[in-house]
Protein: Pyrroline-5-carboxylate reductase
Amino acid sequence: MEKSSPDKSLRKVTKMGFLGGGNMAYAIVIGLIKHGKVEPSSIIVSTRTNSSGEKFAQLGCSTTTKNADLVKEVKGSGSDGAIFLCVKPAQFIESRSNFRALLSCFDGHIVSVMAGITLEALEDVLGKGLNIVRTIPNTAVQVGAGVWACTVRNNYSGFEKLQNLLSTISFFPVVEERLIDIISGLSGSGIAFVYTAIQALSDGAVKMGLDRTLATQIAAATVIGAGKTVKETETHPYVLRDKVCSPGGTTIYGIHALDKAGFNGIIVDAVEASTLRCKVIAQGKQEKK
Ligand SMILES: NC(=O)C1=CN([C@@H]2O[C@H](COP(=O)(O)OP(=O)(O)OC[C@H]3O[C@@H](n4cnc5c(N)ncnc54)[C@H](OP(=O)(O)O)[C@@H]3O)[C@@H](O)[C@H]2O)C=CC1
Ligand SMILES: O=C(O)[C@@H]1CCC=N1
Structure:
C-alpha cells in the first residue's frame, strides 16, 4: 500500500533564519534551543561581522555574513521556513533596497522584531502579499518566559505554526497593530525597568546589611512571586498590596516612602517615553553602531 504523505498543515516551522545576530536574536535563539526544542542545526544567523556570529556558532547554529546565503538556505526548506528581521530599525531603513531584493519573493514567514516599524512600512520596503508578521518580543524569551506580542495583516495560512513555535518561549498575544508600540514600552522595554527595580530592592537590602548575592536572589524571587501571584489569582495588584500592609505595620511605611518619591508617576513616565520613542526610531533616527 502506498504511504500517505504527512498532512502539511501539521508540519512545523522547519528552518529559521535570523537577519541580525545581536542581543534580541541571541535571546530568541537560546530560548528556542533550550525551551522550544528547536535543533541548532535548523537555525542560521547572519551578521555584518564574523565575530558577532561566533556565539551562535558555539551553540551549533550555522552563521554567515552574507544575507543572500541565509535566504537561500531558508528558502530551500520550502514555505515552512521563517526569517526573523533582527536588525535595528535604522539599519533596516538604511539597507531597505537590499532587504527588498532579498525577501520580496520569500513565501515563508517574515517575522519583524523591530520596534516601531509598522506593517505598512514593512510592506513598502519588502512588497505586498508576503506573510509578514510584526512583533515585539522581550529578552525573557531566553528563559522561555518572554512576552512576544504580534500583529498580522491577515491570518495567512500557516500562521498558526509560527504561533505554536513562538508560544513555546513566550506569552504570545495577537493584538491590533495600534497596541504594538504600547506593548513595546510595557514589556519590550519594561523588562529593563523591572531589572532596575530588582537592583534597587537589592541596593536597599545591601544598605541595611544583607550581602549582595543573597539580596539580588531574594529581590528576583520576590518579583517572580509577585508577577505569578497577580497572574494566577487574577486579583487587582492593589488588593494584593493591601493584604501585605498591616495597619501601622512595616509595609505601609515603605509604601509611603514610594508615594512621596512619586514611584507610580515615574513608572508611568517610563512606559510613556519608551512607547513614544518607537515612532521616532521608526523614521531611522537612531544611532546605528
Ligand atoms: N534588545 C531588546 O531587548 C529588543 C530589541 N528589539 C528589536 O530587535 C532588533 C535588534 O535589536 P538588538 O538585538 O538589541 O540590536 P543589536 O545592535 O544588538 O543587533 C543588531 C544586529 O544586526 C546586525 N546587522 C546590522 N545590519 C545588518 C545587515 N544589513 N544585515 C545583517 N545583519 C545586520 C548586527 O551585526 P554586527 O553585530 O556584525 O554589527 C547585529 O548583530 C531591533 O530592531 C530592536 O528594535 C525588540 C524588542 C526587544
Ligand atoms: O531599546 C530598544 O530600542 C529595544 C526595543 C524594545 C526594547 N529594546
User: Anything to note?
Assistant: The first helix runs from residue 23 to 35. Residues 8-177 form a domain with the Rossmann fold fold (CATH 3.40.50.720). The longest strand covers residues 131-137.
